[in-house]
Specification:
5-stranded parallel sheet, about 15% strand, Rossmann fold, alpha/beta, Arc Repressor Mutant, subunit A, 6-stranded mixed sheet, 2 domains
């Protein structure tokens, strides 16, 4: 498969100029190794001799892992820099050695580490590399990345440069008071469903539907049997498989640990621990509730979403035919798809922001609240239909009147941008991608 440029490359280029250690985290098979090796090649292409070519180690190699655990100092001192170390979470012992080497020589871009777990949950790493490292998150392919590649393959236009400073930032646009959506492309309903079912993992893009499902089954089984056990030392692997299927069935819904515990015969604390492990492996994402002092009746229960809808559909045994036959499936799946795309956009945005959801005791809901650290917030509702009515903005209007958000956006499957007021607008999905 030809290399597809990633939007995160722009962030990485900035980090490599002033930071000794860059840590790329994200799900397994999201393209972290390919991206790291791509940058290693770029950084060393101009080197005149092999001693300046840098080095690459993967801790998925059991022999290298054994050496890393037994003699981390000896292993790393033998390697050339810049150095890529893949799956660093398998050998936390290396972190202290990397800290020591960085303190000896703080040259920017000396180490590029990749990890398939949220490494900030590992105390050794979080404490040792404070002030020496920067984290970036690489999710499976986003729709803009895939469309950029499609344009390039079709030869219609030169594909946009992912590192271009002129490239639009949809997160900044959504938070802007004068947001005027740009209709980037039109998605037919069948295209939306196809994109949801396929997902964004690089390995599945050139596979048939049946081959994709086989890959997804093997993928989840490997994570449960390997990472859950090795990284988090959790032992109830059969229950973990059941829990993942249950979470798939409620993706886009409120998370109730007690109900999940009854279903898999685990206590509430154990369920919380296992859900946290799945989140730290980037399989699911808990979206916290949005609440402010002016929102007295807000419910503080988080929502759960799968990070990738292809994995979600494979886990639930859903295909395109099933979704088209039962339109009731589309709403929750589309909401999770939009959630996934927003997470990917936040990861590459210059805006420091978070994603929340809102629900109150009167059952008024807003799927997403996009909020930055300066107090700006935009409400985003997802509708699977092709028709928009004014009453669909009721919850968004309430939050605007309460002063909690500055504007409201509905994303739907139509083909026209529909402004309902200066603060309320309905936009086709193509405006986000």
């Amino acid at each position: 498969m030809e290399y597809i440029a990633r939007k995160i490359e722009k962030n990485l280029q900035v980090c490599l100029k002033d930071t000794p250690v860059i840590i790329i985290t994200g799900p397994r098979q999201s393209g972290k190794t390919t991206l790291a090796q791509h940058f290693l090649a770029q950084m060393t292409d101009s080197a005149e001799n092999s001693a300046e070519k840098g080095s690459y180690l993967t801790l998925d190699d059991e022999n290298i892992l054994a050496v890393a655990q037994r003699d981390p100092i000896g292993l790393l001192r033998q390697q050339r820099r810049p150095m890529v170390i893949d799956e660093i979470q398998r050998a936390p012992e290396l972190i202290r050695t990397i800290k020591m080497l960085v303190d000896e020589d703080r040259k920017p871009g000396s180490f590029i580490l990749t990890g398939s777990a949220d490494l900030m949950t590992l105390p050794t790493l979080a404490d040792s590399l404070a002030g020496r490292a920067e984290f970036v998150t690489l999710y499976p392919f986003s729709q803009p990345e895939l469309q950029q590649d499609s344009t390039k393959q079709a030869g219609k236009n030169k594909a946009p440069d992912p590192c271009s400073a002129q490239e639009s930032d949809i997160i900044q646009q959504l938070l802007s008071a004068d947001f005027v959506p740009e209709h980037r492309r039109h998605f037919e309903y069948d295209e939306v469903i196809a994109a949801i079912v396929c997902g964004g993992y690089p390995e599945v893009l050139q596979r048939s539907a049946s081959r994709r499902n086989r890959w997804y089954r093997a993928y989840t089984d490997a994570i449960i049997r390997k990472d859950i056990k090795d990284v988090f030392q959790l032992q109830k692997l059969d229950e973990m498989g059941q829990l993942l299927k249950l979470l798939a069935s409620i993706s886009s819904e409120a998370l109730n640990y007690a109900s999940l515990g009854k279903a898999v015969q685990m206590d509430t604390k154990s369920v919380q621990k296992y859900v946290s492990a799945l989140e730290n492996l980037y399989l699911v994402k808990r979206i916290p509730a949005w609440h402010r002092n002016e929102l007295k009746r807000a419910i503080k229960q988080p929502k759960i979403h799968f990070v990738d809808t292809g994995l979600l559909c494979a886990t639930r045994g859903i295909n395109e035919t099933a979704i088209k036959a039962d339109r009731n499936l589309t709403g929750a799946l589309m909401e999770t798809w939009i959630c996934s795309e927003l997470l990917k956009a936040i990861a590459v945005s210059e805006e420091d922001c978070q994603l929340f959801h809102y629900r109150d005791k009167s059952q008024r809901e807003v799927d997403f609240i996009l909020a930055n650290n300066n107090g700006l917030a935009t409400g985003i509702e997802v509708k699977a239909g092709m028709t928009i009515k004014k009453d669909m903005f009721a919850a968004l209007e309430m939050l605007i009147e309460a002063g909690s958000i500055q504007k409201g956006v509905i994303v739907y499957n139509g083909d026209k941008m529909l402004p309902f007021s200066d603060k309320l607008v309905a936009v086709p999905v193509g405006c986000l991608f």
